[in-house]
Structure formats: C-alpha cells, structure tokens
Specification:
Blueprint lengths: L7 H14 L2 H12 L4 H8 L3 H13 L3 E6 L2 E6 L2 H14 L16
Protein name: ArsR family transcriptional regulator
Pfam families: HTH_5
GO molecular function: cadmium ion sensor activity; DNA binding; DNA-binding transcription factor activity; lead ion binding
C-alpha cells in the first residue's frame, strides 16, 4: 500500500481501535486478554470495576469486533478476536514507552 491509499475500511477499523483504547477500562481488558482468555468476573476483579461496568465495556469491545465470547457451560469467557490484535497491542506498548507519560494528564491536555 502506498502512502495515502488507506481505505475507508482501514480508517474505520483504526477509529474503532482508537475508541476502544481511549477508555482505561477497555484498554485494561484488551491488555489482559492479550495475555490469556478470561471470564468477565475475573476481569472486573482484576481491573477494580463492577460487573455491570465490565459487562458494558465488553459489549462495546464486542461491538467494535475486538473481543468475542466463548461459551463455557453457564458462563462465557472472552478472548481477542484475532491473534493479530495481540501483536498489534504488543507493538503499541513499545510505542507507548516513547511517549512522554505526563503529556496528556487531563488537566493540561491540549489534545482534547
């Protein structure tokens, strides 16, 4: 692909990923699922949020096509939809290390 030839599909997919990563809980879910599949209750406990918040955030991530549920008897676990997401998140974590950690601390942020 040459510069400037990103399709609308690419743009939409990146916007969905950006939306998912813009919320700390959703970002935490994605990072946790990059390690291993998990149950919502375990994710809620690990991230310190209510089960209702976890349910809402997982619904958002499902709607974005980033996670999928895996039925397991009366429960359902979650995993990333594609192994490429794991690699992409690993690469993003490498990039984050290059960014000034305090540049957008909400109070002095010029990004929003």
């Amino acid at each position: 692909m040459t510069p400037g030839t990103a399709s609308l599909t690419h743009t939409t997919a990146l916007a969905r990923l950006g939306h998912a990563l813009s919320d700390p809980t959703r970002a935490g879910i994605l990072l946790a699922l990059r390690e291993a599949p998990a149950y919502p209750s375990d994710l809620a406990d690990a991230l310190g949020v209510s089960r209702q918040v976890m349910s809402n955030q997982l619904a958002c991530l499902r709607g974005c096509g980033l996670v999928k549920s895996m039925p397991d008897g009366r429960r359902a676990g979650y995993r990333l939809t594609d192994a490429h997401l794991t690699a992409a998140l690993d690469e993003l974590l490498r990039v984050v290390l290059l960014v000034e950690p305090d540049c957008c601390d909400r109070e002095g942020c010029t990004c929003s």
